[in-house]
Amino acid sequence: MKPTALITGASGGIGYEFAHLFAKAGYNLIIVARSEDKLIQLQEELDGHPVTVIPQDLSEPGAAEVLYNKVKELDLTVEVLVNNAGFGLNGQFDELPLLDQQKMLQVNVNALTELTHYFLQDIKAAPLYDIPKGVLNVASTAAFQPGPKMAVYYASKAYVLSFSEALVEELRGTGITISTLCPGATDTNFFKTAQAEHTKLVNSTMSPKQVAKAGFLGFLKGKRVVIPGAANQSMAYASKLFPRSVSAKLAHYVDR
Ligand SMILES: NC(=O)c1ccc[n+]([C@@H]2O[C@H](COP(=O)([O-])OP(=O)(O)OC[C@H]3O[C@@H](n4cnc5c(N)ncnc54)[C@H](OP(=O)(O)O)[C@@H]3O)[C@@H](O)[C@H]2O)c1
């Protein structure tokens, strides 16, 4: 029996690259996003590899439970959960529509937390394979400082990092890997969705292939936190040295 990886946000960007990497490493796949057409296209690209497509809008309250139940109905077991789906919104907090920001929290925070809660029971019960089992959460370098003009997004990613690092300690010695990938700016649809194409963030991006590979290899090695790219690593390190008020000013500068 081969282990199964469930990847959210697999219809494009970093999640699409994760799907290719996990398939190549021998994991069966369950791929999730709203765009069913793109998921089916990915399934066809992975010709012959066992891939289950589950279209699901994770911004709906209760979506994680619905997704978990769909997986159970298909009689599938998940050994690796990749919580990758997420999005950002650029703008002044009080001027961005509250509903959009609530949806962002629903995807970036609630769905990620709830999916981890549901699937962790199965991951715990799953046998140990020669390839790891566990959870790979996608945060961001945004997790390391406050982010004016993307206040809720940065805060949501700080949550993902803090939550995941706590689980590392809770699950130490269980054979379950919990890794957090913290990408910096990456060349995906993220900036278009976030309406942040005008910001300085887009001036220096990594490719989604590079970023997913760093996260995937980090997960295989059991790394707690993976920050792809030397510049992003330096930025994350620097954020520990500066007062948070200074980090917030710097983040405000690049978000313009
Ligand atoms: N790109 C960057 O600069 C960057 C930097 C740091 C962290 N990240 C993080 O990396 C992760 C992947 O983003 P990306 O850069 O690859 O952006 P992307 O190309 O926009 O991909 C986002 C993925 O999330 C899915 N998604 C969005 N809303 C969803 C919803 N309501 N329900 C289900 N799926 C949803 C999208 O699929 P559908 O639209 O088909 O639903 C898509 O597959 C996110 O968590 C993001 O915060 C990105």
From TrEMBL:
One of its GO terms (cellular component) is membrane. SUPFAM superfamilies: NAD(P)-binding Rossmann-fold domains. InterPro entries: NAD(P)-bd_dom_sf (IPR036291), SDR_fam (IPR002347). Keywords: Oxidoreductase. It comes from the Bacteria. The keyword Hydrolase does not apply. GO terms for molecular function: oxidoreductase activity. Belongs to the short-chain dehydrogenases/reductases (SDR) family. This is Short-chain dehydrogenase.
